Amino acid sequence: GAVVSQHPSRVICKSGTSVKIECRSLDFQATTMFWYRQFPKQSLMLMATSNEGSKATYEQGVEKDKFLINHASLTLSTLTVTSAHPEDSSFYICSASVSGLADTQYFGPGTRLTVL
Amino acid sequence: RKEVEQDPGPFNVPEGATVAFNCTYSNSASQSFFWYRQDCRKEPKLLMSVYSSGNEDGRFTAQLNRASQYISLLIRDSKLSDSATYLCVVPSNAGNNRKLIWGLGTSLAVNP
C-alpha cells in the first residue's frame, strides 16, 4: 500500500516553455502533498507544502508564480514549472501524507527535468 | 551548526564490513529522527525511524544520543546492495509548518 506515482518520469524541454508534473496517491487519500527539488550531490529541498483545496505554502526563496502548485483532489497534486530555464533543471520529487504529518511521507519516484 | 549535518563520505568498504555513519542535528527539541536510503536517480526510501534511544532492524542499528545531539546508523555485514546514499532526516517545526529537514547524505560503496 501507500503508492505514489509521478508523471512524467523524465522530461526534456526548451527554455521558456512550461512543464507540468503530476503526483498521484494511488491507493490512499493524501491530505497533504509535498514538493521537493534535488540538485546533483545536494540534499532534498522542500519547495512547498500543499493541502487539498487550499493554496500551497511555499518555502522561503521559492517563487510561487514560477512554480504553480494545484492540489485539486485528495489523490492528485500538480507542479507546473512556468517559463523554465536551464537552472530549473533538477530532480523534482513529490511525497504524500495521509495524516498531514510531515513525519510520515510516501515518496513518488521523481521527475527528472532537463531544460535546454 | 547546520540543522542537519552528515559526513558526505564516500565510505568505501569491503563486503562483510561493519560501517557506521553519524549525523548531528541542531534542534534539541527534536523528538523523532529518520534514516532514509537513496539510490542514484531514485526517490528516497525510509530505512529506519528513531523515536527513543535507538532502533534495530536486522543488520541495521540506529542509535540516538540526545545529550550530544547526534544519531548514528550502523550497518553490519555489508552487502553489495547496501551501496547507496544514506540520508539523515529530522522533522522541524518552523512556524506553523512541520517539515522534514534533510542532511546532504553519506555515500556508501560496498566493494566485492
Give a nutshell description of this structure:
The complex is a heterodimer of chains A (116) and B (112). Chain A is mostly beta strands and 116 residues long. In chain A, 0% of the residues lie in helices and 51% in strands.
Please characterize this protein's 3D structure.
The complex is a heterodimer of chains A (116) and B (112). Chain A is built from no helices and eleven strands. By secondary structure, chain A is mostly beta strands. In chain A, the strands form two sheets. In chain A, strands 2, 4, 5, 6, 9, 10 and 11 form a seven-stranded mixed beta sheet that branches. A four-stranded antiparallel beta sheet of chain A has the order 1-3-8-7, with no helix packed on it. In chain A, a hairpin with a 6-residue loop joins strand 4 (32-38) and strand 5 (45-51). Chain A is globular, with a radius of gyration of 13 Å. The N and C termini of chain A lie far apart (37 Å). In chain A, 36% of the residues are buried. By secondary structure, chain B is mostly beta strands. In chain B, the strands form two sheets. In chain B, strands 2, 4, 5, 9, 10 and 11 form a six-stranded mixed beta sheet that branches. In chain B, strands 1-3-8-7-6 form a five-stranded antiparallel beta sheet, with no helix packed on it. Chain B is globular, with a radius of gyration of 14 Å. The mean pLDDT of chain B is 91. The interface between A and B is medium-sized, with 20 and 17 residues.
Report the strand count of chain A. 11
Give the amount of beta strand of chain A, in percent: over 45%
Q: What share of residues are in beta strands of chain B?
A: over 45%
* Shape call of chain A: globular
Largest sheet of chain B: 6 strands, mixed
The chain pair forming the largest interface, with residue counts per chain, is:
A-B, 20 and 17 residues
Count helical runs of chain A. 0
Order of helices and strands of chain B: EEEEEEEEEEE
From the spread of the alpha carbons, the general shape of chain B counts as globular
Helix percentage of chain A: under 10%
Assembly level: heterodimer
Mean pLDDT of chain A: 92
Radius of gyration of chain B: 14 Å
Beginning-to-end CA distance, first to last residue of chain A: 37 Å
Unreliable stretches covering 5 or more consecutive residues of chain A = none
